[in-house]
Amino acid sequence: MYPVRHKHLAEWNKMSRAMRLAAGAAPTVFIWFLALFLLISAGITYRVLAAHHRVVVETPVELPVSLDAFPERVGQWVGEDVPIPVSIQEVAGNDAFLNRSYRSRLNDQWANVYIAYTARPRTMLGHRPRVCYPGGGWIHDGTQQAQVTSDVGREFPCLIHRFHRPAPDNEETVVLNFYIVNGRLTSDDRNFSGVLWRTPNIDGDPARYVAQVQISSMFENSIRAVAKEIVEPILDFFPDENGKVRAIEYVESSMGVQQ
Fold first, then answer.
1. For the purposes of burial, counting CB atoms within 10 Å of the CB of 223, is it exposed (0-12), middle (13-18) or buried (19 or more)?
2. Are residues 40 and 78 in the same domain?
3. 34/101 same-domain check
4. pTM of this prediction?
5. Structural domain tally of the chain?
6. DSSP secondary structure string, 62-74?
7. C-alpha torsion sign, points 76, 217, 221, 107
8. What percent of the chain stands above pLDDT 90?
């Protein structure tokens, strides 16, 4: 009898152990399936968010008033648009730009005005005369800090750069350069080079921006004369420190008169 009982006990212990092993294996398998599910879900979520982020970043942020509406006549100056190759536009990565040659109606002065706007300030880093002009074959001769007074008496800082091309071109150019950062005029690109300015503009806020203005010609007096008359109209087309765009008022009014 004892051997039989021992045999039954051994079989029971064996079955009990198998049941315990099976019970322990079930949660382990479940945990592995759960971990795999979470991993796959995280991967899908990441790809969806990354795709959305890419679309947001690559979609241009539009200004309330397009730079295309910038006046062709400013004081004594009459402008004519100068096309920029698509390849250069892609490298610049701006949300909007204007490239226009202005000539005086009173004398033989002229200057080229280039305005670039981006609601993603980090894309403006590295795009400045002392980088772009040498990249185009110009030799940098010097840069000086300067002040210009607009036709309404506003003083603003700027940089004046000088470049030349060696023979056989033998060209010289002078470039007046400044920035508008959220409605404030500055000549220092460090004002938008910090870590906070490198974050993407997810909301597409046009009032979180940097605009760069470059006025170039062969003579310094020409670029100063253009800057004096054109800086105030330029400011009108960008949100000021309170987010207001003054150009909305007179551009819409002029369009209404034309209609």
1. buried
2. no
3. no
4. 0.73
5. 2
6. PPSS-GGGS-SEE
7. negative
8. 51
